[in-house]
Amino acid sequence: MASSSLLFSSPVSLHLQTSKRTPFSFSPTSPNLRGFFPSSYQSLRISRSPRPSAAISAVQVEQPVADAPSSPRPPPVLPFRVGHGFDLHRLEPGLPLIIGGIDIPHDRGCEAHSDGDVLLHCVVDAILGALGLPDIGQIFPDTDPKWSGAASSVFLREAVRLMHEAGYELGNLDATLILQRPKLSPHKEAIRANLCDLLGADPSVVNLKAKTHEKVDSLGENRSIAAHTVVLLMRKKS
Ligand SMILES: [Zn+2]
Questions:
Q1: What mean pLDDT do residues 126-145 have?
Q2: pLDDT, greater one: 74 or 235
Q3: Which of 87, 166, 146 is nearest to 120 (CA)?
Q4: How far apart (Å, rounded) are the C-alpha atoms in residues 117 and 154?
Q5: 165 C-alpha to center of ligand 1: Å?
Q6: CA 45 to chain centre
Q7: Which of 46-60, 71-85, 109-123 shows the lowest per-residue confidence on average (mean pLDDT)?
Q8: What separation in Å is there between the alpha carbon of 138 and the centre of ligand 1?
Q9: Centre of ligand 1 from the C-alpha of residue 204, in Å
Q10: What predicted TM-score, i.e. pTM, was given to this entire model?
């Protein structure tokens, strides 16, 4: 259309007018940048200064022209998607410590609305993040009595269902637990096996690491537990 051909054929560097006259500029003549601008940008009109010495050419943002396409582009279908999850819980005496669905003997456990499974929570968030979905707290709000004391495997099974529904499968997962006590090595394989089962994944693509926090801060003082997870999702072959 006329306005877009004017926009993209102009050799000038454009400066968008804002209320603060922010000197945000871009060169629309670069073919690498063209795809980044939504169709609404095609309603930008250039008004050149009559004096070539003027450093700034003004761009007025107008309502989209009548023939501009109104529907946005469909989102890209990515062959891979990466997601990161993080979670932390306070440890309080007298509560069970559930990690990866396994009950770990300890003198304290996680304070939480659900069973406080820090590993499953962050795995859920990593998967949801990779899919570009809201986080676990938004999908399973702790204000909903339905999730009070719920086993976190429920959340993970739902995240896996959403992953398959979106057309993806797990490529691989790498998780790190951070806790000062208890030692996790005697339980690591049981946790990993249960995680594989919940994910429906081969053990070769699910990795679990554990480390202390060098006795510093709440994590190192046995007052909290945290976990990080990174997942790679792969588009399923149709
Ligand atoms: Zn949590």
A1: 93
A2: 235
A3: 87
A4: 11
A5: 24
A6: 36
A7: 46-60
A8: 12
A9: 25
A10: 0.70
Report every protein residue that has its C-beta within 5 angstroms of ion ligand 1.
Answer: 87, 121
What pLDDT score does 218 carry?
A: 95
The alpha carbon of 60 and the centre of ligand 1 are apart by a number of angstroms equal to 48
- Domains of the chain listed by start with CATH number: 2-61 (no CATH), 80-235 (3.30.1330.50)
CA distances from 142 to 95, 98, 119 (A): 18, 18, 17
116 C-alpha to ligand 1 centroid (Å): 5
Specify the DSSP element, H or E, that contains 118.
helix 118-131
Going from the Cα of 122 to the center of ligand 1, the distance in angstroms, rounded, reads 7
Q: Tens digits of per-residue pLDDT, 173-225?
A: 999 999 999 999 999 999 999 999 999 999 999 999 999 999 999 999 999 99
C-alpha of residue 200 to centroid of ligand 1, in Å: 22
